[in-house]
Design goal:
102 residues
Length: 102
């Protein structure tokens, strides 16, 4: 009976979340993505924890280009991991604008 009660409680919680997400639309999706970002960042950074040294060769312009390129890969990575187009969600925020990089 305890297992059944837990199952019913979890099912009710899921129904309540689904209703809230349906009511708030994009804001709910953004909330889910923002809640998932620390986990995503942790997974992405895990291999870097094993790295002793990173050497970037080139002038300061080259380093800026590499950082920009790296940051540009984050939205597709988030979409691949979560199924959410974070750029599309963020574009809908009041006052937000998407800056395209070459």
């Amino acid at each position: 009976r305890a297992v059944e009660a837990v199952g019913r409680a979890e099912a009710e919680q899921m129904r309540m979340k689904a209703a809230a997400y349906a009511q708030y639309g994009d804001a709910a999706i953004l909330s889910l993505v923002l809640e998932a970002l620390p986990q995503i960042a942790s997974e992405v950074a895990a291999p870097l924890a094993k790295t002793e040294e990173i050497v970037l060769i080139g002038g300061s312009d080259k380093i800026g280009q590499e950082v920009t390129k790296l940051i540009g890969t984050l939205p597709p990575a988030v979409q691949a991991l979560t199924g959410v187009d974070i750029s599309g969600v963020l574009e809908k925020l009041p006052g937000a604008r998407l800056i395209q990089t070459a």
